[in-house]
Amino acid sequence: MPVISFAPDTGVWLLSTPRTSYALRVDETGAPCHLAWGPRLTLDEARQFVTPAAPPASSFEGRAPAGEELPVDGGTRYGCPSLQVRFADGSRAFEWRPVGHRVDETSPGRSELALEFTDRVHPLRVTLHYRVHEDSDVVERWTVLRNDGDETVTLLRADSAGWTLPARDDYRLSHVTGQWAAETQLHRERLAFGETVLTSRRGVTSHHANPWVMLDAGGAGEDHGQVWSAALAWSGSWRVTVQRTPDGRAAFTGGAGHDGTALPLPPGGEFTTPAYAGLYTEGGFGAASRAWHAYTLAHVLPYPDEVRPVLYNSWEATGYDLGEDGQKALAARAAALGVELYVVDDGWFGARRSDHAGLGDWTVSPDAFANGLTPLVDEVHRLGMRFGLWVEPEMVNPDSDLYRAHPDWVLHVPGRTRSELRNQLVLNFARRDVADWAYGWLTRLVADHSIDFLKWDMNRAFSEAGWPDRADGADLLWTRYVDHLYEVIDRLRADHPGLRIESCSGGGGRVDLGILSRTDQAWPSDNTDAADRVAVQHGFSQIYPARTMATWVTDVPNQHTARSVPLRFRFHVAMAGVLGVGGDLTKWSESELAEGATLIDAYKSVRHLVQHGSQARLRGPGGDGSTCVQYTAADLSEALLLTWQRTPRYAAPLPPVRLTGLDPTARYRDAATGAVHHGAVLTGYGLLPELPSGDWASAAVHLVRIPTP
Ligand code: GLA
């Protein structure tokens, strides 16, 4: 069956992925309408979804509130518009007039469909794009808007795509909320009637919500049920509106910008929305997550096959108290521990002895490094590690040479307060000169100091988001800022192909498919308390793969929560992602260093499973029992089980953990103990991992298939 097929008699378009189908059609009014999204269909079967146009049931109804590919504002539509435009004459609305289509199946492994329309009155062109890949069930969608007229059009709302679910008796919405140090808290709740808005108004993806949703009919579990999900590839403000309509249908729309932001489209101007990727899966939330992980590895990350190195970061150990000798001492201990990438955090530049000054002045501070950074970089390289450095290019402290020279470079509104958060202001990256300045010093910094890795931070939300030099600046900046951010990173990467980047925004404030398409990993939370991290990582894993999730083992009592948990537990939690260490190694005892080295070694022998295997959340956090995650090799030859238990209950024995997806006919050997287990028993009955007694018990069980003679 072709990947994109068309039935001219009914106008049905059918997009096929390996296991799913997506069908739509341009209806009699010229509007692109949704037909089906779910299990695989033939074109003939998809035709059955075409129903004859019927007049509204009463004069109070209009077009059905769900069921269009990109619901517009106009005519008898009363739902949440994905596209809302204001023309120069003050009029609003959009009426679809189809003008053509393009099918592109020339690129290996992927196919694209573009449906082109124009408004019936004004020369505004709207093209709906769809892309499918031969190795994924994800359907990528985006919209291109082009102003072919000679007056500016204002896009009051220009979402990437609208998505419609099949009719079900009930619906449930899964999403994450959070805040600084408590990101990606998973919620799964009955979808409310009306509109549920998930959004960031902060200029950045945000800690508070993340632009993905999963919907199910109420009965899906981790390993069963139909799930419809979508994730937006955008790192600025965004809005997703999920609707449950009075007639019981569910649909959602999403795109860049929050309520009240608008985008001017000058004559000849074109706006390409960010991609909004959708996925239908059977097999529950676990299967949905695995499909997102596989998609992110295959089609989002720039270097997906790379094994991420074990990292050390000195932030929690030293704070702003940086110096060559101290860093060299830490580097020596890190190297001995088995660390492969040594990262110097905030405080190495300008007058940055605290968070009150120096941000923006990106020259090495002689107070911290009297001989410059080179001796440290050389030493780190000599020790066999890569060298990484923290930067925060989008920000400035008012107490800095940069701000004294360019007070107009920040987001601001003349006459209004310039609100500081963490004593800093936001540089207006939407300005060409600001973006070019950032690119200039970054590319020199990387070249001059042989930097292998940047931790790119962004530590506050927008406020007074004005750009007084341009009349349309306050509208334009929300998208142009992000476009320039992406552009600076892309230019930097092109200049330095060996450079790798971590996305950080005060922890997990900027994790999304947009930033992940140009970075290598993300920092999920400043909260490094292993107990809290179990839940943060659970939420992170819903969409984003472990290969992108940086995790550190830090000291106890934890700096944020004052909780103390054993080193082994901290390591086992951090082993669930890209392992790093952030403790003060000069204070670790010999036995802690020895235990750390052993656990880093153990991680290195299983990280191919964590970073590139398929992940199954066997037991989620919460409740009395243990939390368990399994990572399995594609050929089922190996698996890793990580399990964490906060506290025993009533001296009761733990139930065995049923593993999943192993070869039931094979036997597996526990690499540490040598114990042999039958695959059928592991999956059918379970494994009882050996846990130490008492609180904060954890285990990492590496199972290796025994070759059959
Ligand atoms: C943010 C980051 C931290 C650290 C500090 C430095 O909070 O999330 O990891 O880099 O900034 O100021």
Structural account:
The protein has 3 domains: 296 residues, alpha-galactosidase from lactobacil brevis (Beta-galactosidase, Chain A, domain 5); 302 residues, Alpha-Beta Barrel (TIM Barrel), CATH 3.20.20; 90 residues, Immunoglobulin-like (Sandwich). The protein is built from 13 helices and 37 strands. The chain is an alpha+beta fold and 709 residues long. It binds alpha-D-galactopyranose (GLA).
In brief:
This protein is of the alpha+beta class.
Structure classification: alpha+beta
Number of helices: 13
Uncertain stretches: none
Total domain count: 3
Topology:
Blueprint: E1 4-7, E2 12-16, E3 20-26, E4 32-39, H1 43-47, E5 83-86, E6 96-104, E7 110-119, E8 124-133, E9 138-147, E10 153-158, E11 161-164, E12 172-177, E13 185-190, E14 194-200, E15 212-216, E16 227-232, E17 238-244, E18 250-256, E19 263-265, E20 270-272, E21 276-281, H2 284-300, E22 311-313, H3 315-318, H4 324-337, E23 341-344, H5 374-382, E24 386-391, E25 395-396, H6 401-405, E26 425-426, H7 432-448, E27 453-456, H8 473-495, E28 500-503, H9 513-516, E29 521-522, H10 530-540, E30 550-553, H11 567-574, E31 578-581, H12 590-612, E32 614-619, E33 627-632, E34 638-645, E35 667-670, E36 676-678, H13 679-684, E37 697-705
Parallel strand pairs: 22-23, 22-31, 23-24, 24-27, 27-28, 28-29, 30-31
Antiparallel strand pairs: 1-2, 2-3, 3-4, 5-10, 6-7, 7-8, 8-9, 9-20, 9-21, 10-19, 11-18, 12-13, 12-15, 14-17, 15-16, 16-21, 17-18, 25-26, 32-33, 33-34, 34-37, 35-36, 35-37
This protein binds alpha-D-galactopyranose.
